[in-house]
Amino acid sequence: MIGQKIKIWRDGEYEYPAAYGFVPFMVSYVHENREIRPAMLVVPGGAYRYVSPAEGHMVAEEFYRAGYNVFVLAYTANYLDTPLNMQPLNDISRAVRIIRKHAEQCNIDPEKVAVCGFSAGGHLCASLCVHHADAADPAEDYSQISNRPDAAVLCYPVITSGEYANRESFLALLGEDPDAEQLEYMSLEKQVTEEMPPCFLWQTAADTSVPPENSWLFAEACRKAGVPFAYHLFSEGIHGLSLATERWLERDFGDTYTLEQIRMLVCAVREGRTPYPEETGDRICAEFGFGSRKQEKWAPEVKEQIRQTLPEVQAWTELAEQWLKRRWEVEGEAR
Q1: pTM, whole model, 2 decimals?
Q2: Could you say which of 103, 108, 257, 324 would form a disulfide bridge with 39 (CB–CB 3.0 to 4.6 Å)?
Q3: How large is the C-alpha radius of gyration of the chain?
Q4: Is pLDDT at 69 greater than 80 in this prediction?
Q5: Contact at 8 Å (CB) between 148 and 114?
Q6: Burial (CB count <10 Å: 0-12, 13-18, 19+), residue 295
Q7: Residue 289's pLDDT is what?
Q8: Residues 6+ apart with CB under 8 A from 171
């Protein structure tokens, strides 16, 4: 089952004012044989403004090759100006419950369900790890299924709403004027307890979009709470490296289904179903390259500089896979 689209919410369950017909979904990468495998839910970034294709299909292929049954989550994002609040957390919570509910059908060990999030997607995964008890499900058949991940892989994650915050992510999530309680709740380094699942984090020291202090603060919170964790800080590399491969550098992301909400927003703008002028739709199309040839993102000299940093950072996938393998062994021994 590769490429199956699975809607997260059923009719009448989902309501986000700026969805314009979009309903969050997962896409599956499930092995056809009957071997029982761990599951990985991949959660791309995008500053909570969109769901990045750079961290979807390619990452799913990597974990699929590593033996996982994989799902990529296209969660609710806020490209314009309707704060998300708890909606993305509710999306990922339901996604984990769906995976566990259908674990036998998908040949998944329900006690080996991991999440892998990038940037704002890392914030979303970490939010579920620390706030899973707060994400109640409205459906009776899902409400009794655990939404707590068994492990988390956080890749250059947004974590803190404090001094080192990625402000754009919190603007999309909470709006222009969040109160102190909201900011505290979503500043995840302050929310870690011993109930947090084991966590693997990585970041680059040169990241200027999401400062490495985000990962440092979360790793330190895990250490103080006695939560098993690993933390890797690579010396070079820009934000958003995904797999840090030549394919990523050439922007060959594969299927871009994660941008469905953005495409539906463009259609709604052009059909007059939003408060925004038609020019807004044109601007969005230009930003995401809809209907045009792939454009170079970097000048040649900048691209070459980025290329030189990739080999070091590529190690993160093997490190994460080995760490997860050991975690599954430890948990198995404990059971």
Answers
A1: 0.97
A2: 108
A3: 19
A4: yes
A5: no
A6: exposed
A7: 86
A8: none
